[in-house]
Amino acid sequence: MNGVRFLTNSRLKLLRSEHICKWSETDKNKDPVPRDYKDWDKFDIEKECAKVDGVVTNNSAPTIINRGLPKVLRKLDTSALTEQERMVLANREKDKGNEAFKTSDFEEAVAYYTRSLSVLPTVAAYNNRAQAEIKLQNWHRALSDCQKVLELEPGNAKGLLRRATVQKHLGNLQMATDDVNAVLHIEPHNEIAKKLLNELNKKMTKRSPEKPAKGKTILIEEIEDEEEEASDGAVESSSQQRVGGESCAAAAAGEERADMGNAQKKPHGRGDGGGARGKGGSADKYTVTPPGQARDKERPAGRGLANGNSTAHQGESTSREGGEQSKVNLDAPAGNLPPQLARLKNEGNHLFKNGQFGDAIGKYSLAIDGYTESGIDSPEDLCILYSNRAACYLKDGNSADCITDCTKSLELQPFSLKPLLRRAMAYDSLERYRKAYVDYKTVLQIDISTQAAHDSVNRITRVLIEQDGPGWRENLPDIPLVPLSAQQHRREEPPSAEEAQARAERAVQDAARKAEARFTVLKSDGNECVKKGRYEDAVGKYNECVKLRSNECTVFTNRALCYVKLERFAEAKQDCDLALALEPENKKAFYRRALANKGLKDYLACSTDLQEVLRLDPSVQEAERELQEVTELLRQSLAAASPGKPRRSVPITEVDDTEESASKGEQDSTTGQNHMDQSKPSAITQPANAYEFGQALSAARSHDDTEACAKLLHLVAPETLPSYISNHLDGHTIAFIMQALDGHLLEKAPSLVYQHLNHLHTAERFSVVLMLLDKDERRQMTQLFEHLSAVESEDFSKNDVQNLANKYI
Amino acid sequence: MSTPLEKPQIIAHIQKSLNYTVFDSKWVPCSAKFVCMGNYPRGTGVLQIYEISHGELQLVKEIEKPKPIKCGTFGATSLQQRHLATGDFDGNLHIWNLEVPDEPVYSVKAHKEIVNCIDGVGGVGIGDGAPEIVTGSRDGTVKVWDSRQKDTPVANMEPVEGDTKRDCWTVAFGHAFNDQDRCVCAGYDNGDIKLFDLRNMALRWETNIRNGVCCVEFDRKDINMNKLVATSLEGKFHVFDMRTQHPTKGFASVSEKAHKSTVWQVRHLPQNRDIFMTTGGAGNLHLWKYEYPGQRSKKDSEEVDMGVAGTVNLLQNVTLSTQPIASLDWSPDKQGLCVCTAFDQSIRVLIVTKLNRV
User: Where is the composition biased (Polar residues) (chain A) (predicted)?
Assistant: First the structure.
């Protein structure tokens, strides 16, 4: 029984008739034996060279590439197979497909998946084929595969995900989103789905504002578009779908934006004009075919009219032209042309559409002649006629005449797009690349979105560089400057105020980035100097840093270190104060201030600082040692009321710029006021910058000297207060300022208080700080506003104060 | 591959000592059985069928034949029949119905001397076209057989009369992706590798790898030829990218020194063509993965396409024996299951794990 099956099965396959393949070892090109020395005397170079050449020419067979699938059967004959055999076979073919897929041979993969499916349709094979089709950008086939998957197994996550991908590329964003959501419902943690959903959302949001912009892109259509009938709509739209899909696939690298663009144009962009532009021509939109009339776009109204009339003339034209041309209205009026000329033109358009370019040229020529005879003044129409004839010439390959016509057309209507583009193509085909380049460039000036021009410019640039070398631009004729009037209505996005603003912002950001970079460099230079012991230089560097950015705590602490090393203790102390103002938690600042105080022989302050350090971080041994020493000194100085023993230098080596790495200590924010500073700033001068203001303010605060603060506030212009305070605002500062304003300034200058308050709330971090105020501070603030509202003044009313108070309380 | 356990592991599942020298073993398609072929000490041939059941090997059938059997294949039989084609020391090609093994289904005196190697295509769902068997022999010829044709081969590849005849050690089918196209690759003791195009009956390509070619195998028999692995006597193996054939340079290849001894055999995983196992003369197995280059072809200086070889990565190696492992066969049905035979007169069933993750 088995034997019978064997025969039936093998009957299909042809038996090989006997063949014999023989080869000979002798005719092989064996490696030549090394020559004897004597042989070189008789060596004939010419002959040997000829021999070598001969060998080369013998081997000029082409490379055999085993790629593609010329003859793989897409369908397997499985009539005689059992179920199990089919399963094995289907699996095997699927495996082959998977392997091909892995090596990116997607066509091969599709072929094997198809074979697998022909044996036994399985979800996996459909799914995999869909993926391969997606890679090949055959969206519609991929879509149908996904549908099959979902028919066989509704809710298959992979199938849904792939359908979503396809829908995304087909532009059906809503459907894609639905599918992705379904996937996420099944597998909430599917990363790919999440990513896809994000993309989709982005596209969706981008798409709505994009719609009008897209509508503006110029459509380079064939001239046939004028004769189209709205009734074609349904048929056309389906064919456009197909065309769109193909062009997607053709957009080789699968540039997504381009794909989306094509897909998107289908639904809209055609809706306007009452179906007048119903005909696609979309296949030609980006291809290098003679474009239609540039002026079409500019006269949608005129075309609407043409369309409206077309129905009226319908019957007439049907009787004349016969059924075949029933849809073509040859008498549609065209611009200002008299009826007979309009008819000639329309006939020409019709012939052009049918590919009878020679006849179309005749019609257009007649129309042009008639135009000159009739003596009407309508350069636009003449321009179109010339332009259309140029298109015919171009199609016919008669580039020279095309150029003449385009030139004439351009004389009538300078900078109209289509004649320019056609002339560029004609020049291009005549290999007059320089002129073509200039024309394409002009086209791009008029409409930057003309893809054909972009492509050609790139290509020609390469050619010209090859011809002329790097100096190719010098040989070019001048590129005419297109007047703005010709550009603007074609621009996709005229540069707006927003753009300018964005640019300015970018410039600011750039500057900030540069400053940042410079700051970092300077700081690290400074640190380097410290390590080498060149403290003077380091101070210089840090000074520059401070100029660039006055809110970096580490710079101050580092500079303080330098000052300590240089024994300029007063400055060191000031820096530490500043650092603490910026960062009240800074342990290094405390430690260094202690050292500075010690240097200044203010042992009391020094020991307070050290205690602070130790309180926060008891593990700092240097601080402990210092403290012992200082306590000793303090006792001596108190007891003897005499200067302590000579200062001891303290080794301080750490210059870390990250505060975390230092093992010093921490402190809290409230301690700032507790320190007894001996050098009371006597005279308050008008601060010139944020730094000085910060110094003065913190000095005043450290003494709890509200009067000094009031003086300071008196000197500061209210408008500049927020910028001086910068981002150093904290609850205590606010409370302190409130105290100063309430206690000292309110009586003298209530309007200044009002002004200050009016500006203070615009300071950075104000709202945050406000939230963190404690009860006492709030009470102070309320008090201030109560007092303020009690004051009568011309500069502000009670209402104003009330409004302001609302911002604070 | 952060930890060693992430890599595929080669686990010796079952080991069994035999009382004869075993040359070859083959899984019976769609079953848990395999056939061992060998040579009894008394000089006769033997076929044994083993079945794996409950982690043990059970001898299902033992068949003694007059001549030692060197090699066998199921490649040219249908899944329903599963007839075994064997080549013996005397140069005979037999096709056996293992159910009724007394008389061969097909028998031919194929060669004058020992049949070293055999391969089949067109059966068990592998390869379109006629089921054909190719044999290579010490007599220097490579012959293609169709079991429907008595006594004479359908194709015969031999050197012209008068030339020295090289010992053909290995043959392999490939390129059988439709009814017409088919290639046979043969390796010889002098290091020659010859690729015969059966469709045009021509020598399509040849090269020499300097050392005797112990084994050649296409990664897949039934696709547009993709890769060919050739192992050699001195421990190297070569992987040829068969997609692009340059007119002078031929196919691009990468070679790897694998074992310190002869590489006896190479077998591609039936479920993944880019993974293959080589068996060594010192009783070790190496598992490899081929990585394709970014571009599989490039233009040479004269703008002619030429192939680009990829790289091979060693996934795992293991030493099982002190004697050469002469044959290995992956189970076509269960990924990672394989049987190997060694000259220490034992057969081993191995399991290779995590192959789906590499």
Answer: 307-317, 668-682
Residue B117 and residue B171 in contact, taking contact as beta carbons nearer than 8 Å: yes
Query: B9-353 in CATH: which number?
Result: 2.130.10.10
Q: Which residue has the tokens 């190997």?
A: B340
Closest Cβ–Cβ partner in B125, B224, B304 for A92:
B125
Contacts of B306 in chain A (CB under 8 A): 63
Determine the residue type at A384.
I
Are A283 and A236 contacting, i.e. CB atoms less than 8 angstroms apart? Answer: no
A499-600 matches A339-487 in CATH topology: yes
Quote the CA–CA distance of A707 and A724 in Å, as a whole number. Answer: 19
B248/A592 Cα distance (integer angstroms): 79
Q: Do A23 and B160 touch (CB under 8 A)?
A: yes
What was the pLDDT predicted at A54?
A: 46
Using a CB cutoff of 8 Å and minimum separation of 24, what contacts does B60-66 make?
A: B60/B33, B61/B98, B61/B101, B63/B96, B63/B101, B64/B40
> Which SS3 state, helix, strand or coil, does residue A413 take?
coil
- Whether the Cβ atoms of residue B324 and residue B263 lie closer than 8 Å to each other: no
CB burial string A285-301: b at 16+ within 10 A, e below: bbebbbbbbbbbbeeee
B156:A9 CB<8 A: no
Residues of chain A in contact with residue B274, where contact means CB-CB under 8 angstroms, are 99, 102
pTM for the full predicted model: 0.49
Secondary-structure class of domain A499-600 per CATH: mainly alpha
Tell if the CB–CB gap between A85 and B132 is shorter than 8 Å: no
* Chain B interface mutation, best of A56, A63, A99, highest count of B Cβ atoms under 10 Å: A63
CB contacts, 8 Å: A15 with chain B:
130, 146, 148-149, 154
Helix spans in A646-774 (H): 690-702, 706-715, 721-725, 731-740, 746-748, 750-760, 766-771
Task: Supply the CATH classification number for the domain A339-487.
Answer: 1.25.40.10
CA distance A61 to B317: 42
Nearest Cα of chain B lies from the Cα of A107 at a distance, in angstroms, of 12
pLDDT level of residue A17 (50, 70, 90 thresholds)? low
Q: How many CA atoms lie within 13 A of A150 on its CB side?
A: 19
Contacts of B177 in chain A (CB under 8 A): 69, 71-72
Alpha-carbon span B173 to B182, nearest angstrom: 7
- The rounded percent of chain A whose pLDDT value lies above 90 is 1
The whole-angstrom separation of Cα B335 and Cα B340 is: 15
B200-239 pLDDT per residue, tens: 888 999 999 988 999 999 999 988 889 999 999 988 999 9
The interface predicted TM-score of the complex, written ipTM, equals 0.87
| Maximum CA extent, chain A | 130
Confidence bin at A245 (pLDDT 50/70/90): very low
Check A10 against B125: CB less than 8 A apart: no
Calculate the average pLDDT of chain A: 70
Q: How many helices (H) and strands (E) does chain A have?
A: 37, 2
* Joined tokens for residue A239: 């064919």
Q: Which of B150, B177, B210 is the best residue to mutate to test the A interface, defined by the most A CB atoms within 10 Å of its own CB?
A: B177
Interface test with A, best of B96, B157, B205, B223 (most A CBs within 10 A): B223
Domain boundaries, chain B: 9-353
Question: What's the fold here for domain A83-204?
Answer: 1.25.40
Rounded to a whole number of angstroms, the distance from the CA of B79 to the nearest CA of chain A is 7
Tell me the three state secondary structure of residue A357. Answer: helix
Mean pLDDT lowest among A56-60, B72-76, B246-250: A56-60
pLDDT tens profile A752-782: 888 888 888 887 777 887 777 788 888 888 8
Domain positions in chain A: 2-58, 83-204, 339-487, 499-600, 690-806
**What is the average pLDDT across A257-275?**
39
